[in-house]
Design brief:
The chain is mainly α and 208 residues long. Helix content is 56%, strand content 2%. It is rod-shaped.
Length: 208
């Protein structure tokens, strides 16, 4: 009957005689020689058993970025071996790197397009600055409440509230512009009727 044995259940011995016995035991297995261990015992496969993740969503990313540093470092490069990155942790880290670069470029381009649109359609300093500040405050509020209620940030969805915030600010500004144009055509005045509650006040208020 075949039996599965591990020569290092009790750890790797430090005694030379015990090491020689372990070596003889391994080399006596024909299925291992020249498959896992060379016949001169100078080369072998190394299999590492990794500990399970405590928090997979966080640990996978941390392990992947740590592996990236090892793979990219000149310290671990050699002509004697080649490091081949594999596994979900490394691919997750690569995905996050690509999404981060893509997120920054798209958001930066979106803000640029937003400012150009506001400058063209609003044609006023306040019409550009106010929607821009409104966008920043709206995005900050969304991310702030997300963090407050402990919702983890998903890289795939982070761009959505940013783009929606920019679209909202532009739409809000354009609605005000259209309302001003409509009232200006109807009344010919740049200021609407006074809405102050103080009696006797005849100050007009801006339509926008």
């Amino acid at each position: 009957m075949n039996e599965v044995k591990s020569p290092f259940n009790d750890g790797i011995p430090s005694d030379a005689r015990e090491l020689a016995e372990k070596k003889a035991f391994i080399m006596s297995r024909e299925s291992i020689v020249n498959n896992l261990v060379s016949d001169n015992a100078r080369e072998c496969w190394i299999s590492l058993k990794l500990n399970p993740f405590k928090n997979e969503s966080e640990d996978v990313s941390a392990v992947g970025h740590a592996a990236e540093k090892v793979i990219m470092s000149d310290e671990f490069k050699s002509d004697r071996w080649t490091l081949m990155p594999i596994g979900s942790a490394y691919t997750t880290a690569e995905k996050e790197d690509i999404l981060t670069k893509d997120f920054v470029s798209r958001i930066g381009l979106g803000f640029l397009v937003m400012l150009i649109c506001l400058i063209i359609f609003a044609r006023s300093v306040s019409g550009v600055i106010v929607p821009f500040i409104e966008t920043l405050l709206g995005i900050g509020t969304v991310f702030g409440f997300t963090s407050l209620i402990n919702i983890p940030a998903d890289g795939d969805m982070m761009s959505l509230p940013v783009l929606l915030g920019m679209a909202l600010s532009i739409g809000y500004a354009l609605h005000y512009i259209n309302a001003f144009k409509m009232l200006f055509r109807q009344t010919g005045k740049r200021k609407g009727p006074c809405t102050c509650r103080n009696k006797g006040c005849n100050k007009g208020r801006p339509c926008i």
